[in-house]
Amino acid sequence: MVGLSEKSRDVALTRLRSLAGHSSWQENSWQSLALWGIPTAKHEDWKYTPLDGFLSLDYREPRKNNIDSISFESISMSFDCYRLVFFDGKFNPELSDDIPNTTVTELNALDDVQQQQLAHTISQEAFSALTDATATAGIYIHIANNTQLDKPIYLFHLNSGGDGELVSYRHHVELSRLAECHIYEHHVSLNQGGGVTCARLTANVSDGASFEHIKLIEEGSLQHHFGHNDITLYRDSRATSHTFLLEGKLIRHNTSSVLKAEGGEIEMNSLNLPKQDQVFDTRTFLRHKSAHCNSHQTHKVIGKDNGVGVFNGMIYVDKGAIKTDGQMDNHNLLLSEKAQVNSKPQLEIYADDVKCSHGATTGQIDQNQVFYLQARGIPKAKAEKMITFAFAGELTDAIEHEEVRKHIIRRIEQKLDL
């Protein structure tokens, strides 16, 4: 007899099918999703990520809302940038900026070669296929050789947050040789309704190029967000990826990267702030495919109330990828007895002469540290705030842009009632 959970997954797939696109790469993505199905808790990688709320939604396209009545200044970050605006699954060119020495092409105007690049994936799973299949908006950014943009690109995504509304975005960044680009991706909701955001960004970082990507997720408290970043690095290229899971009901975010040629280097960081009934899940997959490449990862969870944080990371070293240096750390701070973190860092190494390690720690605020600060005249509440901010500071301090860093710090303070 078919179980209720399996039936609900079949019903969900039927409802989602009506929202899928019809281009060849989207049809292929849907076929992959239909083959795999929506995962259950029996899948090891989904053991701690409950999908009951997602499965119960009545998926639909967003209602047509008037973007002209929205004050973007009050809900977006304010800093000097090239802004590209997306609202309820649509790109808005009127509110977006032109970018010098850069080609920006909308999703529905891509040629066959660009569509094939969209089809590439490093570590595909069901929700990356769902994102590609249902994407209604996205941009293909091509940055010319030797171009160093003078300002970051700000991808601002705003959704109405209506119940059951599904918005899907599919972005790609192509950095040519010796190019440099900073992209800040931001997702915000107008309302607290329970909808779904699917967002995927891929990047090819060519020889000698440099890429920074910062993603902030602060949508409605009932929103479901499934995110994927795929970053491919070539010879002597550099990339940094910072992900901040700040607000939502269920957030599951995957960052995957492959180092394809010698001299590549990547840094991958994340900070999760689950509280109340929220589940925030970070996944990373990093493949060292070539010799003489470096990677460093720091992932943290600050859990409050009965919030649940999840971290699962894999460093995979190919045979022949000698002189690999791959480090991965996961540290978690629990601000209540009911908060939980499930951590699983992993290594698979098939090469000799490598330096790889991983580590994980989970604990509450060290009362000896609190006592030390109290002995110097600092009240207990302020002492605990200082310790919490110091814990997050390793990740916020890595954000060089001052206004973006200040925004993240303010949101941490608001979220944790510090």
UniProtKB/TrEMBL annotation:
Domain of life, source organism? Bacteria
Q: Which residues cross the membrane?
A: none
Annotated SUF system FeS cluster assembly SufBD core domain ranges read 163-391
Pfam families xrefs: SUFBD_core (PF01458)
Instruction: State the organism of origin.
Output: Vibrio nigripulchritudo
**This chain belongs to which protein, by name?**
Protein sufD
Q: Which SUPFAM superfamilies match?
A: Stabilizer of iron transporter SufD (SSF101960)
Gene Ontology biological process terms, A to Z: iron-sulfur cluster assembly
